Amino acid sequence: MLTAHWLKEAALLGHARAQYNLGLMYKNGVGVPRDYREAARWYHAAAERGEPRAQKNLYNFYVSGRGVPQD
Hints:
Layout: H1 4-12, H2 16-28, H3 36-48, H4 52-64
């Protein structure tokens, strides 16, 4: 199983799938404390790189106001 440390290393290098998976970990509190704001941050980074699952999850965050201002 990938740890948050290694995912974060890859995410910081701009790897979209790692950014998405790190967002999932923060959203669900798996291996890291649950933090919707941090999840949104990583979803946003992955969405900008064209990761469709991150785009969908970020959209859902904006609809619900989870970790971001509701819009």
